[in-house]
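Weekly sync, protein design subgroup
Attendees: M.S., D.O., the rotation student, P.L. (late)

Item 1: inverse folding check
M.S. brought a backbone from last month's batch and wanted to see whether the design step gives back something sensible before we order anything. D.O. pointed out we never logged the input encoding, so this time it goes straight into the notes. Structure tokens as presented (54 positions):
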């Protein structure tokens, strides 16, 4: 029988919307998408402009 966890998709989204999401971005950087460096070079500045305080 598969293991069941006591959290929902909203719980996960709440983590990514808060400090946990910022930590994920800091640890994983912006290299987690399939476009690699070329897309990161274009997306990185746009993402930074959209993050408050950056």
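Designed sequence read out in the meeting:
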């Amino acid at each position: 029988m598969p293991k069941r966890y006591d959290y929902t998709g909203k719980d996960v989204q709440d983590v990514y919307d808060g400090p946990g999401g910022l930590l994920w971005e800091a640890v994983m950087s912006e290299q987690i998408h399939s476009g690699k460096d070329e897309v990161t070079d274009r997306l990185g500045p746009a993402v930074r402009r959209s993050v408050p305080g950056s």
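Discussion: The first helix runs from residue 9 to 17. The chain has a mean pLDDT of 77.
Action: P.L. to compare against the previous round before Friday.
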